[in-house]
Specification:
By secondary structure, the protein is α/β, with parallel strands linked by helices.
């Protein structure tokens, strides 16, 4: 194994990345940096599938392993890629690169290892307006607008990906130039083997769907409780943290707008769509090492990873 080279454990949601990363971290004496853009929020641990841990001496420990960038941000705060990179870089340097990056946020991963373009910072007022328009007129409406001003970005961003869609529109409104023109191509660069040991966990779609359905049924009740507690503390339903996958449906259930069955069905569909987008994103990397997790235990997978590095 190359000395102090970071390890990446990626893959679609519900494939079992966290369990594998934890076992690997224990065997190597590494720490973990979360690549999840939603596990950052305090009090939303179940719905975001954040690892169960505890804070000790300023560190979040999961089974004794330091697990960074989870359970630290208030529900109503915004967290972006540049902030992630700054914090993750500081952690990695402090840990002498003995870290495992794991999670499904491909944008975090790409920008950390390949660099960011010099794009305008987030405009929270503008983003809020665009989000309201999406709620009022639908995401397809925003996507059609993006097609008119930036066809290339519209081609690359599906209308379901509201965060990237809003960001592309935001860049245009702030600069007057299409995001596709301002971007340097870093977003499409390869994460090469000299940057990290890059592993991608996967399994057949049918098996992954079974895991998604099982997880949805398991977490729905505690996720509803988390949403209820957040609202009781005065957080608004459109707070950044409560926009995380599943929480809008949990809130709709609390308001008696939809039934439990409808909420679970919607969450399952959205999660499946998210997994599909993740597969598309990670599928473009040529230097990753893919591991088929079907029928394997975490121990089996970790042994395979240790052999490959």
């Amino acid at each position: 194994m190359s000395k102090h080279l970071p390890i990446i454990i990626s893959g679609p949601t519900a494939v079992g990345k966290t369990a594998v990363a934890l076992l690997l971290a224990k065997k190597l004496g590494y720490s973990i940096i979360s690549l999840d853009s939603r596990q950052i929020y305090k009090g939303l641990n179940v719905g975001t599938a954040a690892p169960l841990g505890k804070w000790e001496n300023g560190k979040y420990l999961v089974e004794g392993v330091p697990y960074y960038l989870v359970d630290f941000l208030p529900v109503d705060e915004v967290f972006d890629v540049s902030r992630f990179i700054s914090m993750a870089r500081e952690i990695s340097e402090r840990e002498n690169n003995k870290v495992i990056f794991t999670g499904g946020s491909g944008m975090y991963l790409q920008n950390y290892f390949c660099g960011m373009d010099n794009l305008p910072k987030a405009d929270l007022i503008l983003r809020a307006r665009l989000a309201r328009e999406a709620d009022m007129y639908g995401r397809e409406y925003l996507h059609k607008r993006l097609q008119e001003i930036d066809p290339q970005s519209a081609k690359e961003i599906p209308y379901q990906n509201i965060h990237r869609l809003i960001r592309a529109l935001e860049i245009y409104e702030l600069t007057g130039k299409p995001a596709s023109v301002l971007k340097s191509g870093k977003l499409k660069q390869e994460i090469t083997k000299d940057k990290a040991h890059f592993f991608y966990l996967d399994m057949p779609k049918e098996q992954l769907l079974e895991r998604i359905i099982k997880r949805t049924n398991l977490i729905f009740e505690p996720m509803v409780l988390e949403a209820k507690q957040a609202l009781s503390k005065g957080h608004k339903p459109d707070a950044p943290g409560l926009k995380s996958l599943g929480y809008p449906q949990a809130i709709s259930f609390l308001k008696n707008e939809i039934s439990e069955e409808q909420a679970k069905e919607q969450i399952t569909i959205l999660t499946r769509q998210y997994a599909k987008r993740q597969r598309t994103w990670f599928g473009r990397y040529q230097e990753k090492q893919t591991i088929n997790c079907a029928g394997k235990t975490e121990e089996d997978i970790v042994k395979e990873i240790l052999y490959l590095i």
